[in-house]
């Protein structure tokens, strides 16, 4: 959408406010998909919820590509938003539930990896199709979004259902078959199956009806409250540090720095996409080697420095050659630090810290916080930039990013190498020997690490 809006505005003659609505409404409306995704995935399964997400998004992309006016274009964007809401909620949950503990961090980063890869492909398509007439190029830019989701149809023929969801449905034999595909040792399979059954509470299934799940989320125990603060908080901080303004409005930022040609604007934006995609690949390797928390520190501190640098370069050196270079450097640095840490780790944490009975709907609640934050930031960026300048807006983001460093220190635990069942115990002081007065980050040392990583 970042490159397409240049030509949409030219073709459909829409205002800056309509552009803000068009860009930001996707994140706002996606909260409906995220809210519905928890109940849907608990009812029809993780696998088929992903299929539903793909189908809804395809409808939205098709409507946008054929839209004759702003109203129809907005309607297509709404459909796409609902599909994205389902997808961003269910993908990390599914991967966390099927992945072995030793590789869960890197595997749960995959949604963020392919989001970045998709953004990069979007930037490339913007550049490639920008030479076509304005009434055609943006339609192709949006229409090609249908193609990737078609591949999900083929994937559904291969991937299994989540073993933890199967246990929740008392389909124990099917869950065992899935575990046998990811764990070689039969004894380990039996132990893991037993742990999952205990966590799922299959002996008292009525206790975990949907109504009681929402009651527990709205009136949480101290342990669940800590989980909600960590899981939902990291989701919100991921967005309010302004990453979507860079993704959606890179051409606006670079135009403010002094680049005037549409082709050059899209080329600079492509550089941002390449940086973002490359650095997420680094995160795959580091997330299970260094851990979640060290990467979050590097990420949030690095983003803060880059956001301050971007603000100062736009304010003091705008429209000068050195200012353009520094703006590009700091934008690329910001997305690099984001992709190495808070970008992927946000989804990893929110999918692994909640107990099984709450996981789907609590993750959906976290995704709602992310989508609302993203939508509000995206829909207000141009107005804020007009009011306090682009430089001033990014200085505000820098202050928020600095606060995220404090949040990571106070509220986020280290979960590397722990099974989902072990992580649940980390948040519950009653289950930790002598841990009543200890900091959450210190509880890691009290949980024994299984040598097999299960």
From TrEMBL:
Keywords: Coiled coil, Membrane, Sugar transport, Symport, Transmembrane, Transmembrane helix, Transport. Residues 1-416 form the Major facilitator superfamily (MFS) profile domain. The chain crosses the membrane at residues 17-36, 48-68, 74-95, 107-124, 136-159, 265-287, 294-316, 322-350, 388-409. It comes from the Eukaryota. It is found in: Membrane. GO terms for cellular component: membrane. It is a multi-pass membrane protein. GO terms for molecular function: symporter activity. InterPro entries: MFS_dom (IPR020846), MFS_sugar_transport-like (IPR005828), MFS_trans_sf (IPR036259), Myo-inositol_Transporter (IPR050814), Sugar/inositol_transpt (IPR003663), Sugar_transporter_CS (IPR005829). Residues 172-199 form a coiled coil. Belongs to the major facilitator superfamily. Sugar transporter (TC 2.A.1.1) family. NCBIfam families: SP. PANTHER family: PROTON MYO-INOSITOL COTRANSPORTER, SUGAR TRANSPORTER. This is Major facilitator superfamily (MFS) profile domain-containing protein. It comes from Chenopodium quinoa (Quinoa). The lineage of its organism: Eukaryota, Viridiplantae, Streptophyta, Embryophyta, Tracheophyta.
């Amino acid at each position: 959408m970042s490159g397409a809006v240049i030509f949409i505005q030219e073709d459909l003659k829409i205002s800056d406010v309509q552009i803000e609505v068009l860009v930001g409404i996707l994140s706002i409306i996606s909260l409906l998909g995220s809210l519905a995704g928890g109940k849907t995935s608990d009812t029809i399964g993780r696998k088929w919820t992903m299929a539903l997400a793909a189908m809804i998004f395809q409808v939205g992309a098709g409507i946008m590509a054929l839209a004759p006016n702003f109203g129809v274009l907005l309607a297509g964007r709404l459909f796409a938003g609902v599909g994205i809401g389902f997808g961003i909620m269910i993908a990390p949950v599914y991967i966390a539930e099927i992945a072995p503990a030793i590789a869960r961090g890197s595997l749960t980063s995959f949604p963020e990896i392919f989001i970045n890869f998709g953004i990069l492909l979007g930037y490339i398509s913007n550049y490639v199709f920008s030479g076509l007439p304005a009434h055609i190029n943006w339609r192709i830019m949006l229409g090609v979004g249908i193609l990737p989701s078609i591949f999900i149809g083929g994937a559904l023929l291969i991937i299994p259902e989540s073993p933890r969801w199967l246990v929740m449905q008392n389909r124990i034999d099917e869950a065992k078959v899935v575990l046998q595909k990811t764990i070689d040792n039969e004894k380990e399979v039996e132990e893991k199956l037993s742990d999952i059954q205990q966590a799922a509470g299959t002996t008292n299934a009525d206790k975990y009806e949907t109504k009681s799940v929402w009651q527990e989320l709205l009136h949480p125990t101290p342990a669940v409250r800590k989980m909600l603060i960590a899981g939902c908080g990291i989701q919100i901080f991921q967005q309010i540090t302004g990453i979507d303004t860079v993704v959606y409005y890179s051409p606006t930022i670079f135009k403010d720095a002094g680049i005037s040609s549409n082709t050059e604007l899209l080329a600079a934006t492509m550089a941002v996409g390449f940086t973002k995609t490359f650095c997420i690949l680094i995160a795959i390797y580091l997330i299970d080697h260094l851990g979640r928390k060290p990467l979050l520190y590097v990420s949030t501190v690095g983003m803060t420095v880059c956001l301050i640098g971007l603000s100062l370069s736009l304010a003091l050196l705008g429209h000068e050659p050195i200012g353009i270079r520094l703006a590009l450097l700091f934008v690329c640095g910001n997305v690099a630090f984001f992709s190495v840490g808070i970008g992927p780790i946000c989804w990893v944490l929110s999918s692994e810290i909640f107990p099984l009975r709450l996981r789907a709907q609590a993750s959906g609640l976290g995704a709602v916080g992310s989508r609302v934050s993203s939508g509000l930031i995206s829909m207000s960026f141009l107005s804020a930039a007009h009011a306090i300048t682009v430089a001033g807006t990014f200085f505000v983001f820098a202050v928020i990013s600095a606060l995220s460093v404090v949040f990571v220190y106070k509220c986020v635990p280290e979960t590397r190498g722990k099974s989902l069942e072990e992580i649940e115990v980390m948040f519950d002081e009653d289950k930790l020997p002598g841990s009543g007065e200890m900091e959450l980050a210190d509880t890691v040392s009290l949980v024994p690490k299984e040598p097999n990583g299960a």
